[in-house]
Amino acid sequence: MWRLLTLKLGRLYCCLKFLFVVSLLVFMLMNTHTLFDSFQKNELTDRRFISLNKCPACFGTSWCRKFMNGQITFETWGRLRILDFLNVKNVYFAQYGEPREGARRIVLKRLGSNQELMEMEQKICKRATGRPRCDVSQAMYKTQFSRLNGEVRLLTPDIVEGWSDLVHCPSQRLLDRIVRRYAETKDSGSFLMKNLKDSERMQLLLTLAFNPEPLVLQSFPSDEGWPFAKYLGACGRMVAVNYVGNELWSFYHAPWEKRVDLAWQLLEIAEQLTNNDFEFALYLLDVSFDNFAVGSRDGKVIVIDAENIIVADKRLIKQNKPQNWDVWYESKFDDCGKEACLSFSKDILCSRVTVDHNYYAICQNLLSRYANWRGTSGGLLHNPPAEIVRVGRLEALLEECANPKKEYGRFQAARELRDYLAKLNNNVR
């Protein structure tokens, strides 16, 4: 009976799949003219398509000349607008060409889904006019995003605190860093807001509130060794970042030695973001196989989705000494059985100097047996060689790192796991 039911479900799935393919082909045939136009026209030169006409309700203009000159073009499938319904996140692959350097692959992001962008516009319009629809480019001047226009000198915590994860608990030092490194102005390098144009101030604040990923990439750039994709520029609501390589997920079934190297790099990222000379702790709140990529040339692991990151200023915590500020904080294990689960308190992350959150996030969601993703389990270090299994040390360290049994056990386990993987990494090379 069960076998018969399985066969029927299998046939039903095949039929539905066949009908979907046929429907897609029919739709494409009915829109042949539109398809032809999509391949002929470079829509990235269209001001409306990239929402340049909606600035300053946009993310920047530093790369507009490159867009308008046709130096950026979608790769093949990205040109087909009829497939946009499959691209919910509005992330595209494109080619960027310089006359003397040739073309290279980049990634374009709208920083949100169409629904999220529409809701953002409605909020701006309601605050400015009381109605959900309006000329959003003009409405920006009547919202909180224009508060710093004029002679305001500094971007201060009381203005933007809580607007997004990046500024859940901002220090003045962090905000000065964000303004000083803001790439969507010709006069970057100063932390004084008065050196920015009114439109640039509003774009900065809108980005900070809607999706601060560009500001994370600018404030903690890859050129200085931070494990993020390189920010290139923006035009309208299209942001360009450097293409890194395939997502971490594509290495789930890679040879054991490759997975050991990637696991070691992930723990190195957790350590760097937690403890660094700048005394900024960057806590990853959204950790999944899709949010990391592996360099196609150097094999280096990079964070490619930096929207949900809290930045805590350890110097400020030491200075203000909030309650229990010097008590080590151990994140609580949460085996929710779903993909990419994490349990955390943003307020605690912002008020403690010693926190194990990043080790917890990497171990639970990527490395250990608790990592669930796309119907798989076992984590990146699944199915180790028999000798590794026999010794049992790897399994024990992963378990303690994800679900510690000893008080503060994760701190020690994460450190020992990094050393153990480094040793394995050297042995397999």
Task: Please explain how this structure is put together.
This protein is an alpha+beta fold and 429 residues long. Helices cover 40% and strands 12% of the residues. The protein contains 16 helices and 12 strands. The strands form 4 sheets. Strands 1-2-3-5-4 form a 5-stranded antiparallel sheet. It is globular and about 65 Å long.
Brief descriptors of the model:
single chain, 429 residues, alpha+beta, three-stranded antiparallel beta sheet
Summarize the structure.
With 429 residues, the protein is α+β, with helices and mostly antiparallel strands.
Please render the helix and strand layout as text.
Elements: H1 2-30, H2 32-40, H3 64-68, E1 72-74, E2 91-98, E3 102-109, H4 114-129, H5 136-139, H6 157-160, H7 172-180, H8 198-210, H9 213-219, E4 231-235, E5 238-242, E6 245-247, H10 256-274, E7 280-284, E8 292-295, E9 301-303, E10 309-313, H11 314-320, H12 346-349, H13 357-367, E11 372-373, E12 376-377, H14 386-391, H15 393-402, H16 409-428
Antiparallel strand pairs: 1-2, 2-3, 3-5, 4-5, 6-8, 7-10, 8-9, 11-12
Helix pairs in contact: 10-13, 10-16, 13-15, 15-16
